[in-house]
Amino acid sequence: MAEYDPINTTAGIETESHDVYINELDQVTEIGDDALFIVQGLNTPNTSTISLADLRRNFISDDDQPSDTKVYSSEKIVELIENGQAEIIQQLGETNLLVVHIKENYAKKDDVNVELDDIRDNMFTQQDKENIEGSLATKREKDTPITSNDLDKSSDASRIHLDNLGEDVLEAITGQTAVSLVKAPQGGWTSESYANGSITNEKLSNSYRYRGILVDGTIDAITVDGIYVLGPQVLGVPLFNDEDEDPKYMEVTSYGKNREFIEQRIDYIYQVEGRPYYIRKGKHLNLSGMPFVRHYTVTDKFKINSSLIGENITDRPDITEGNIFDYTAEGTYKVYPGVDNMPTNNDTYFVRVSKYGDYHVYEAKLNSINSCVIYHTYVHQNEYGITIATDWFKTTNSNKSKFDNQKIHIFGDGIAYGYGVNDSTKDSNYTQLLFSKYGFRVFNHALNDATIGNYNVKTIEERSVLTQIQNTTFEENDLVIVFAGTNDFKNGSCPIGNNADMKDTTFKGSLNLTIKAIMDKNPSSRLLLITPLYRDRIDSGDKRNSDVTQINARYLNDYSNAIIDIAKLNHIPVLDMMNEGLVNKYNCSHWLTDGLYFNTKGHDMFATMLFNRLNSLY
108 to each of 116, 120, 225, how far by Cα in Å? Predict the structure, then answer.
């Protein structure tokens, strides 16, 4: 074949029969398999030969994998095309089905947006995470018991109330339903285990303290509260005599701050007159060493007859020297001057010694016909055995009352002034009794026919309580009495008014001004208001009593109630003579003169009531 010229693609190939150019190869139909091709590289002079059969094998191989230098046969290419078409048709069919499915099931944009909004609204946030973590941190395991510390007790409204309890619980609390318990608590039930009032007599058996029968052992070991029947073999049981085999019972009681003390009492079940019962007391640890003491029920057989008692049963020997506290036997001693630890050194005393528990009480009366002075002291021994005595203190008092020499000012009307007794009995006037019986220094400013207020009447104003106070000077802690109101009622032109009144034209207003005037003069004044008492007439002899008689549609009791109202409003104490003064329509002649003023008995009664009220207050 001719040399191949890469520049001239029409260069021929020279063979034995003819030359064939490259671009003419597809027209060559008869070339033997052994025909040779001469091939020269592009940039090299060397050449090589290849047979047509080898050349064909290099270009055509249907079984080989495709590459740049391989050529399939037309049959292979047709097969590939057909297979490709079939695969495309299949894929197109599947794609078409998918398109149909999508078309049938696609979601509109608006629907998708709604779903997205819903997802956003319900999206799990960081706050949700913190809330869940917080709940998990504080969650209670199912098997963890609830205690009182878990309950909200911050306020009464937060606590558990009866409304939260079931009917069965309420019935169990009130005792209407029996409550079954597996066992009693260790040590048994105590009184602290029960709610107050939860056990009543109707729910207790007569033998509820009964503990049982002891057939042997020793009573020294029995310290639990209750009642025991004692058998004949029990040790430590006291006997009346050697033949004593009668059945007995023992009651055990514990007491003391920590119930550390025990009392055992043994009685005969079948009591026979003349036989004792036995008691011993002591601490738990010391009980076995404590003997039983016999006690006899007091009967005529065991009572002391007065004929057996001497006249000087409490008399003790005279004491002329030594220490009075060395004499501890109960009774009365005559103690002469020179005995130590007496109230005074140079006087003779009668000393009575009494014992109360661990204390001795010494009462010393001065032996004098001119006076009766009594002293007391208390004596005991401390833990080291040293005698300790209080100072002697005088228990007699020569003062008439605790109000001795205290000033008392009285403002009011003729009843307050003290009318009702004549000159021969004027010492029976209640103001005189306040001095003579109770020691008050009385300054009586009351005037006959006086009212509380002025009521725009000149003659009334001249005598009114307000005017009386205006003209008086008070000292520190003076007692002040306002006793009026009956003339305000009789006057008829005195309106009662309101609690808030501060004017002298109404009764309540005048009372408010009265209290203010006294406190302005001296706020330490101790004030007492007194209501009018029952009167059995309006004018002398008319027998119109204050219970049934009205003046200007008002009863005397209306003025009494007004005083109580104003006193309460101003925090002032009251002596209510209208309701508590003993005088009424049935007995007024016993207490009153002419149905209005106190008589001698009335003055004494009123002085006592007034003193008792002041004594309770101040």
Answer: 12, 18, 90
Residue in this structure with the two tokens 């034209």, named with its chain if needed: 505
Higher per-residue confidence, 357 vs 238: 238
CA atoms within a 13 Å half-sphere pointing along the CA-CB vector of 612? 10
Look at residue 351 and give its three-state secondary structure. strand
The pLDDT tens digits of the residues spanning 132-155 come to 877 777 777 877 888 878 788 888
Residues 6 or more apart from 101 whose CB is under 8 A from it?
A: none
Give the separation between CA 415 and CA 534, rounded to whole angstroms: 12
- Helix residue spans in 395-485 (DSSP H): 414-417, 430-436, 458-461, 465-470
Q: Which residues pair with 407 in a beta bridge?
A: 441
Q: Nearest 5°: CA angle at 238, between 233 and 243?
A: 70
- In the prediction, which pLDDT does 21 show? 59
The crossing angle, in degrees rounded to 10, of helices 507-521 and 556-569 is 40
455: left (phi over 0), alpha (psi -120 to 50) or beta: left
**Once rounded to an integer, what is the mean pLDDT over residues 216-224?**
87
How long, in residues, is the chain?
618
pLDDT of residue 57: 63
Query: 36 phi and psi, to 5 degrees?
Result: -105, 145
Considering only CA atoms, which of 445, 454, 440 is closest in space to residue 416? Answer: 445
Burial class (CB in 10 A: 0-12, 13-18, 19+), 462: exposed
Predicted TM-score of the model (pTM): 0.41
pLDDT of residue 388: 87
Give dist(CA 609, CA 530) in Å, integer. Answer: 11
How far is Cα 332 from Cα 485, in angstroms, rounded to an integer? 58
Which class for 429: exposed (0-12), middle (13-18), buried (19 or more C-beta within 10 A)? Answer: buried
